[in-house]
Amino acid sequence: MSEGALNRISNLISIEDDLNKISQLRTQFLKEKSTIDSKLNNVTKLQIDSIISNLNKLNTSSEKLTTIKSEINKVNSIHGDSVLIEGYEDVMKMTKVNQYFNQVNHLVDDITNFRRNLDNINALIDNELDIITNDITYPLSNMLKIHYNLTQVRNFQDYLETYSQSLSDDMKSIIIRILSPLRKTIKLFDDLLKEIIISLTEAVKEGNLQLVLKLIKIIDYETNEDLKVLLKNNLDLKENVLTVNYGMKRLVKRNYKKFFYDKLEESLIETFDLCINHYSQDRMLVYDNLEWLEDEILFVNDTLSLLFPESWEINNFIQNVYYNKLHNFTMDIIKTDPPAEDLLRILSYDTHYNKFLLALQTVETSDKRKSVIKPQNKSIIGEDLKNVVLDDYLKVILQKMEEWNENLIQTETRTFNQREGPPDLYNYHQVIDDEDINDQPVMLDIETNVYVLPDFKTPLTMLKEQADVAADSGYGKILVGVIEHWSHCYIKRIVNYQEIIDEEFDNYMSIYNNERFLINESKTRRLFRRRQKDIVNLDEMTQEQLSAISKEGLIEYLAALGNTFEINTDRLQDRFLPTYKEKVHSNYQLKIEQAFEDTVTPSTELNAQVIRAIVDIIINDLYPALSKLFTKSWYEDNQSQFSDVQPMAARIVETIGEYMEEFRGYTTYDIYSVTFNVLLDSFISSYIRIGYENILHGDGKKIDPSNTKKFKSFNDAIGRDVTILYGGLESLFTRKDSGYLLNSLRAIEFLSDLATCEQPMEFIPQMWENEILGSFYYCSVEYIRGICLCRKDMDKNEVNLLINSLIKIQKTYHQQVQPPLMVTGTLNDFTFN
User: Fold this and answer.
1) I need a labelling partner for 325 at 20 to 30 A (CA). Which of 189, 436, 669, 725 fits?
2) What is 628-833's CATH superfamily?
3) What domain of life (predicted)?
4) Phi and psi (nearest 5°) for 446?
């Protein structure tokens, strides 16, 4: 038993109790032994089968070897029989002597007639060359005859030159003199071939296929003969020069296949150089006038290459020659450090050229051939340098865009601050959603002349010019880079306008701020953001001094700014984004989308700042009237119907109406509508806040819910104001938008019930849940706190208990009720002091 088995048994039987397992172990070992025996039998069988197969193959090989030996014996026997022929050696000697005498006779004849033969060949060549030079349709009737005769003469030359290697120097000199006239004939023939090669394309266009076919036949023959010479030299097959049939034997390569490609290349290069020279005054014009090159390549691909053997790769060769010329020409231009515009023209043509080659590759010709050129590897400036040029061009363009943007920012800042005249007018087509008298949706088409900033199209024009050029280059990297940087510049302009608005608004408020009216009615001055010393005394300043601080037309220019960015944002999303996405690969589309998307939020924030500034200016003009809210004079507005003094609400309507009527005449409807909604929210929250503060901190008196005396009823005064406000402002809204006005005014209307209801601790929570939250989903509880503090019959403890209850109700309401599609935000962030 092996040592390994013994070790395993010792490990299994290590204690006395393990002896009880011997039966189980024996059964297990038997199973394992059976498995091992089965595997061993299979392996053994496979090895035996392999041995038998190899023996059979060895036996077959032995039989074949025996057959080969038998055949070799037969050959040896035949050879032995042949050499035993009587006089065999003498016959061989006589044969060689006869061959020598015949060779000498031929040599004498050929040397004697050598000059005359050359003259005949020369005459034929001159005639062919003259005709083909003047008539591209000539089928070269004598071309094959010329080639045959010249081949015989050149074979004779090879023979004499080879044979002369064993002769004396004098004899070599004689042979050289004999052969010297042949140099002229060879040159004439080469000139004829060159003319034929140069005329290939034109000949085929004129239908002269014989010219091409005969040229191919000659070059093909020359190539095969050169190959025979090469094989003989490589195999070291020596022949007796004295007896060789020199008319049929070539001893030296002539390399006419190389001659064909060299002359074809020279012709193509000469053609391209003619184009370069023609535009020597402005070499960039070459790229704009290469239609002839593309036509030539297309003709070669579709027609000429089909006449040549596929192995010649004539199409590939011609494309490569032109590519090399384009590449070298382009590199020469790049070395001169051309301007960015020229670099882009080069890149643009590079893309066009590659697309052109790709189109050739994907269109099958009549015999199903395709170009073997890979366009992606055929950049006329090289892939590595192309990336460098792309980066350099992009840097230059981005730098120019940055400079242009800085100049534009300076111009825009000066124009906005100086406001030397009204903004420009732009005819703007708008489609407005409205409702008819049956509350059915209708669409209104409106043509309006809206204010825009001077040259408001300039930024988008700049984008279009640069992006179109970048798109035409065919490089998505450039287009994306241009659009991304333009977006960066666009946002810088927005940031500059935001700073301008802040500065101009502060200048305006330093002169026209009406918070002093509120201060006069309030016992505390900490409620207002602007300190008294910041406000200019209008009575002490001339109009020129006031204009130097804040020029006229601020609202008009703010409106023009809002219109400008709204219109441009729509154009960017609706026109520019789809246009440029289509011009790039899907890999770049997301970047373009993001670049345009990056401008949306800043533009929206800018327009929000514009609207906020306009609203603050209008609200500022309302402060003198609002300062009397919930005071004695406000209650007594009911008496104004018997006097020439307008009620406060009427003066507010008049002021808002004047602003918004004029505003509607020169803004887009979207800007007008949003501005009016924000104005309503700001006005109504200001109305309520100022009323609260007048009661809590000013001259107003707390509301006595039980007071019903004439001219002292809070309910009557609130109802009067709501009626005047709605009646005076409704005409400024479309039918659809008037709903926002009605709902907003409920914030004032609810005050009458909140201020005068009995048992407010029970009534107000019910009204809060059933009415107020339905109209103002995110209503601030400070709205209720304020009116309750203004009640004469409620103390702070009661108010605090009530507010805690309202907060719980609002939380439950929000869990159970989804917010409306159109939220009225009048009381969302309502606060008071």
Assistant:
1) 189
2) Exocyst complex component Sec6, C-terminal domain (1.10.357.70)
3) Eukaryota
4) -130, 135
